[in-house]
Task: inverse folding
DNA sequence: GGATCCAATACCCTTTCGGTATCAGGCCGC
DNA sequence: GCGGCCTGATACCGAAAGGGTATTGGATCC
């Protein structure tokens, strides 16, 4: 599992479509599709239901979504904690 | 920044030596050394002071360490949240 | 000053990741 | 029902990343 994978998942969950999420992420659809599938594989549980209209979050997906957002938020916080400081001091 | 990089950083911070951390992580020393360096590069701040005795955490490194642990904890929680359920409890 | 620890670098190879082209299947209009 | 049109999935290929071995550079300790 990678951070990119988590970001991809969130985008797909929010868009409801792999193709639209791909556009938003500036990647093409196939890698995104594969990434989601391999994430489900690693977690051992399907996160989406594939419908002819797009991707529909399953309960497990909903659970993972909140975790995913928290993880990405933490990463963001970590970066912010160091970026503003000119690396001179950080007692945080 | 990748999750592996974050795990590497935590190991080095805890061991105080790249070589020892490498042993613990079951990777060799050079990739680990590079990974830490590229992390510092990306964050725009040195996290360690290189001494002839090993790696010593700088204040920025200490700050990042707590964030790193939280991130890894969240990832762990996300995995645990899905693993126990064998993905069959969704209908009722 | 030579031996000894340490991380950093050079170089190579394997694996991963992203892109293009194409397929497969459900839906809708006709 | 058949053809076009959505959707995601697969095949294949090339570029990039990541890890390994061998080696270097630098500081300490005797």
Result:
């Amino acid at each position: 599992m990678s951070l990119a994978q988590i970001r991809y998942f969130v985008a797909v969950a929010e868009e409801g479509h792999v193709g639209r999420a791909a556009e938003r992420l500036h990647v093409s659809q196939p890698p995104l599709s594969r990434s989601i599938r391999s994430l489900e594989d690693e977690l051992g549980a399907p996160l989406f239901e594939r419908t002819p209209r797009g991707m529909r979050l399953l309960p497990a997906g909903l659970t993972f979504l909140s975790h995913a957002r928290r993880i990405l938020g933490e990463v963001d916080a970590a970066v912010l904690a160091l970026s503003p400081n000119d690396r001179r001091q950080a007692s945080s």
User: Anything to note?
Assistant: The two ends of chain B are 40 Å apart (CA to CA). Confidence is low (pLDDT under 50) at residues 87-92 of chain B. The first helix of chain B runs from residue 3 to 15.
